[in-house]
Design goal:
Helix content: 40-55%
Structural class: alpha/beta
Number of strands: 8
Shape: globular
Radius of gyration: 17 Å
Largest sheet: 6 strands, mixed
Oligomer: single chain
Mean pLDDT: 86
Strand content: 5-15%
Distance between the termini: 42 Å
Length: 269
């Protein structure tokens, strides 16, 4: 059985995702795929335009695991936003909240999300760690949160891009799906050209490699600009608080579920 988490997402208070609209953002829906019995809720505080939340892509290996085994393993790797710095408990980190959302939406399956976040880590260090973590956990899907620390320590965008691209190709060769979870938004970075350069590099890689990309910066900026009364950040005004991690989990869940029911568009169409 999957781990139980104390922090359930605001059921009843959220607005159900318009799943059909979400699937329209993916390439094409598999004709023989049954939709989730209940779409995961998107809480009012976490609402953002679909285009600001994610650029979905198909997740064939994760979908096959759910279909064949009725279970799947997800490895969540990255830095402090994955480990949960700023959260009031481990159960409020985004991986723990994501597991609860997916098991609620994908009825009759067991989803395990392993949290392997290390605060302060840059992409090149995580990339080396991914190989040993994959050997240990044997995931069907890897969620890679990255970019913020690389921008802050001024990693060259070309170097960053090459690291991410080569790691994605290694994951593909090992039949592991990947979702890239992008840089966070903060008003202090809103005019930082080097921050934008890393964000743009990540988006280029996601597009070129046809992998799902969670537009964390865009979604967080939308929420900050349209729900100014909501506090999404911890006291240090850099890491997320419980609500910030809740929104992060809901947005990633949306990208994952859309990817499960997406299918590559036939050539010529």
């Amino acid at each position: 059985m999957a781990r139980k988490v104390a922090g359930k997402i605001g059921a009843g208070s959220g607005v159900a995702l318009a799943l059909a609209a979400s699937l329209a953002c993916a390439q094409e829906r598999a004709p023989d795929s049954a939709p989730p019995e209940a779409a995961p809720p998107l809480s009012p505080a976490c609402e953002a335009p679909a285009g600001d939340i994610a650029a979905p892509a198909m997740l064939p290996h994760f979908a096959k695991a759910l279909r064949d085994r009725k279970s799947a393993r997800i490895l969540a790797i990255g830095s402090s936003s994955t480990s949960g710095v700023g959260a009031s408990s481990d159960a409020k980190s985004y991986p723990a909240q994501l597991e609860a959302i997916l098991e609620g939406a994908l009825k009759g399956v067991d989803v395990v999300v392993e949290n392997r976040g290390v605060a302060g880590e840059v992409a090149a260090v995580t990339a080396e760690r991914i190989k040993s973590e994959v050997a240990r956990e044997k995931p069907d899907l890897l969620l890679w949160q990255l970019g913020t620390n690389d921008a802050l320590v001024r990693i060259a965008p070309d170097e960053f891009e090459n690291t991410v691209r080569s790691t994605i190709r290694w994951l593909k060769a090992n039949e592991i799906d990947v979702v890239l979870v992008g840089l966070q938004y903060s008003s202090r970075f809103s005019r930082d050209e080097e921050y934008f350069a890393i964000r743009n590099a990540l988006q280029r890689v996601a597009t070129a490699e046809n992998v799902a990309y969670v537009r964390r910066y865009d979604a967080m900026r939308f929420i900050a600009q349209n729900h100014a009364n909501l506090q999404m950040m911890a006291r240090d005004n850099f890491h997320l608080n419980d609500l910030g991690y809740q929104c992060m989990a809901e947005h990633i869940a949306r990208a994952v579920i859309v990817g499960v029911f997406a299918k590559r568009r036939p050539s010529g169409n």
